[in-house]
């Protein structure tokens, strides 16, 4: 437990600026700093403020008051961050916010429900050890106290004209991929709304890279590559969306670049063979998968460095407006037979391009074969409960059964099942020592998955490990923790809801009424499940 700061201790400008995309003090910053201190004093007028120290350090609590004041600044300055969240939430759920009664809610104005939601969001992103429900009474009490201060300031608070340019984009013809990438970066890594989420995740990654690469002359290159990868690949806790989704939504309706940003692909990075070039493109072959790429020269000024066919190129690229654009790092080297063998045997490298085949029906045919085999192997069940030291044997036995009875040799030439990789991964983990029991689930959208220490979320007659005392925590874990798929969570709810007393409680009803939002919030990227199969071949991308 952290020490609750004395309410007389002031918040300083350096703390306020942590949540800003600039470091120079702007004319309105002193006003909002003073307002943050008023918010702090109002909150500490409530006994419930003591609850915050159960979850946050004192510096983080001070930052919470700045975070909530930034919400008002966002509304007043028309930077459109909060309103974009409301818009996207309405598109998914036909209401502005989860959790709360919205009878007295006014879009575009200060609302106590907004503040309560932001407190809940901040608490559950700044720390992940304890999941706090939005129905917790201290959150509502604090929200009303803060609302009184912000509502009084609503009519008189000044616009911060320095903010909006960071979260907007010119609509002129010369603005394109790289300017859009900057907007995505600003939203995820330089905004108050995503500070406790993606910005802190980047900060943690940077600290790890610094620690692991002290004195390395390529340190800056490593940092740039990681940031570029994260801006294209991270999913927000809010609605499980990528930076491109937020950037396209924050732009005004009809903006020329909004659909192009929305359609931007995941980033591909890795080793390629150089296969030549013409006036428009550089031709590359992904070594691991054999897929062909045409990188537009509009994005790559170093094409003159490439001269020798089959020299090896490490590069990153993103599909933008139906062309592949350079993004991240680049270096080239001579042909290296050892590297080529390593890449062609690497499932991880092949998976770099998996997303390009997600609409391919062949993937789903393989997955359907796997599911039929699994259910035949388990006498019709998609879920098997086992002692932890028996899971390894079960996986190997099923994999052998599947290979021997289902897969044809001709399919092996074109389709490589990721199932074997998953088995190796799970077998090499330490779950046998850490947990007494677990389960094996066939996810109809992705394939085999193993889940440990959540058996009490499933009151099946085939589950000898069900413990009613552990049931509530296991249910919450399955729904909230990113290590368990959306499909496993839905299996729990859809198959066993009527047999789980937890779902009759107020807490359980709140979760059921906001189930999809909480699944997205807890799982992020892992909210989405895709076939664990990699297509290998020379098809163009």
UniProtKB/TrEMBL annotation:
<dbReference type="Pfam" id="PF12954">
    <property type="entry name" value="DUF3843"/>
</dbReference>
<protein>
    <recommendedName>
        <fullName>DUF3843 family protein</fullName>
    </recommendedName>
</protein>
<dbReference type="InterPro" id="IPR024214">
    <property type="entry name" value="DUF3843"/>
</dbReference>
């Amino acid at each position: 437990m952290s020490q609750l700061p004395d309410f007389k201790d002031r918040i300083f400008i350096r703390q306020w600026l942590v949540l800003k995309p600039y470091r120079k003090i702007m004319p309105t910053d002193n006003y909002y700093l003073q307002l943050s201190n008023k918010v702090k004093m109002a909150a500490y007028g409530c006994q419930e403020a003591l609850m915050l120290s159960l979850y946050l350090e004192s510096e983080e609590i001070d930052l919470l008051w700045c975070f909530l004041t930034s919400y008002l600044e966002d509304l007043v300055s028309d930077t459109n961050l909060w309103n974009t969240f409301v818009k996207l939430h309405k598109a998914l759920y036909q209401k502005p916010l989860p959790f709360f009664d919205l009878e007295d809610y006014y879009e575009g104005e200060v609302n106590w429900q907004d503040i309560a939601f932001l407190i809940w969001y901040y608490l559950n992103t700044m720390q992940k050890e304890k999941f706090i429900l939005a129905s917790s009474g201290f959150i509502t009490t604090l929200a009303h106290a803060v609302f009184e201060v912000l509502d009084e300031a609503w009519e008189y608070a000044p616009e911060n004209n320095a903010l909006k340019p960071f979260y907007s984009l010119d609509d002129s013809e010369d603005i394109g991929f790289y300017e859009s990438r900057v907007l995505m970066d600003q939203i995820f890594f330089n905004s108050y709304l995503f500070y406790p989420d993606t910005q802190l995740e980047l900060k943690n990654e940077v600290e790890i890279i610094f620690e692991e690469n002290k004195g390395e002359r390529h340190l800056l290159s490593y940092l740039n590559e990681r940031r570029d990868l994260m801006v294209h690949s991270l999913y927000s806790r809010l609605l499980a969306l990528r930076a491109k989704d937020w950037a396209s939504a924050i732009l005004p309706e009809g903006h020329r670049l909004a659909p192009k940003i929305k359609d931007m692909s995941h980033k591909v990075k890795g080793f390629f063979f150089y296969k030549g070039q013409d006036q428009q493109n550089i031709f590359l072959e992904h070594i691991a998968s054999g897929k062909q790429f045409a990188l537009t020269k509009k994005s790559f000024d170093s094409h003159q460095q490439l001269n020798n066919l089959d020299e090896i190129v490490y590069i990153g690229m993103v599909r933008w407006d139906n062309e592949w654009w350079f993004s991240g790092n680049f270096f080239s080297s001579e042909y290296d037979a050892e590297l080529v063998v390593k890449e062609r045997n690497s499932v991880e490298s092949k998976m770099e391009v998996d997303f390009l085949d997600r609409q391919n029906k062949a993937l789903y045919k393989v997955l359907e074969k796997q599911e039929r085999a699994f259910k035949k192997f388990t006498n019709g069940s998609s879920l098997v409960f086992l002692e932890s030291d028996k899971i390894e044997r079960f996986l190997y036995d099923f994999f052998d059964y599947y290979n021997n009875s289902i897969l044809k040799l001709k399919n092996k030439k074109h389709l490589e099942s990721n199932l074997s990789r998953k088995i190796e991964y799970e077998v090499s983990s330490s779950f046998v020592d850490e947990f007494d029991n677990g389960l094996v689930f066939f996810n109809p959208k992705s394939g085999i998955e193993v889940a440990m220490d959540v058996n009490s979320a499933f009151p099946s007659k085939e589950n000898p490990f069900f413990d009613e005392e552990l049931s509530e925590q296991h249910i919450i874990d399955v729904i909230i923790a990113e290590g368990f798929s959306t499909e496993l969570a839905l299996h729990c709810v859809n198959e066993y809801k009527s047999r789980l007393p937890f779902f009759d409680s107020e807490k359980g009803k709140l979760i059921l009424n906001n189930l999809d939002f909480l699944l997205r919030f807890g799982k992020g990227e892992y909210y989405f499940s895709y076939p664990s199969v990699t297509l290998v071949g020379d098809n163009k991308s």
